Amino acid sequence: MARAGRDRASDDRGGRRVRTGYVAYWRAEAASVRASLTALAVGLLATLVAGGVLAASADRITAVPGLLALIPAAIGMRGSTFGAFGSRLSTGILTGEYRPGALRRGWLGRQVRAVTVLSVVSSAQAGLLAWLVAAAVGLPTVGPLALVAVSLLGGLAASAVLLAVVLGLARRASRRGWSLDDVAAPVVSATGDLVTLPALLAATTVLDAGAGVADAVGGIGVAVGLVAAVLGVRDPDPRLRRLLRESLAVLTLAVGVDVLAGVAIEARLEQQFTTAALLVMLPPFVAKCGALGGMLASRLSSKLHVGTLAPSRWPGAQARLDVSLTVLFAALTFVGVGAAAWLAATLVPDVAALPLATTIAVALLAGAFAVPILSTVAYAAATVSFRHGLDPDNHGIPIVTATMDLAGVLCLVAAVTLLQVGG
Q1: Handedness of CA 344, 349, 353, 356 (dihedral sign)
Q2: Positions of the chain with pLDDT lower than 50, given as ranges
Q3: What is the DSSP letter of 29?
């Protein structure tokens, strides 16, 4: 009995030490915490606008069969492609390779060429795979080339904005000594949501010009994507070849997962999202899942590159501290997602808002399901790729973003089902 009491006392002291260690780490990372929470808050406002656009554009979305299956893939590709781009720039700043004035040559020029090729290829892939999967499961859809045309035009317009945003963030982070890992993922995720959805909706006007025009644009898009991919993986620069080969492989997988997420949304739309307020919550919730996972993956990747984190099979003390930061961010973020989704629903015309407590409960429960998944995937993607001689900057964010685009939808569906909301 006395020994048991001593053991419990020892466990209590150990628990206090762990908790103290986490709190001390949060205090030591106060600047990063402030930067990350600010970026997440700004991103939340942006993704809520995207949610409002999604709810307000329901008629246009349903008028273009297959578009809802494409939306998560198109948005996810912007987040994966430019999130990884930001992660590479962050590592480049830490290792001294980043030179802000060298856009057409050297290390930065290579990164810009790579992200341009990846944007073209992934946009064409997203359209083709969205059509293929939607047709395979029996969902109505426009023709494959027409969907490629919408994906390509909308994706490239959004990519131009994101390229400017990420380069601007990197320049400012380099000048002011920020950690780009703390802000790139949430800002890229939010900007991608904010600009990709309106860009896709605007791109659907190509369908109004006639099937022949849309098919011609889509055919050109497929051809350009194939040529860009072939020339990229055969580029004379060995470092660019490696970057593109690694990225194209993981982004192809990510596109497929994102399309499955879109099909899951479209298939479940009538059953789980009959309440428009829940549809308003969908983009910010999924985006925050991807942003939180992307931030963690980016932090882990940078520490692997500079040697402050060992790529062990099980998370060590440093990795657990970074995961604890993610848990802290998630608790605050998902309360904000629920509250802001409720506010947005009250402001969008013809949208019936749920009670505030209900929307927060849905967001928190779905977040509780999502955080263990995103943390596990972020750690595994970064460390496994590093152990196999691959660049975790090319793999971590695309893998975790794509996974959470699908898992985030499923977590939200599970929370809505368990709480019996909107049925």
Answers
A1: positive
A2: 1-20, 272-274
A3: T
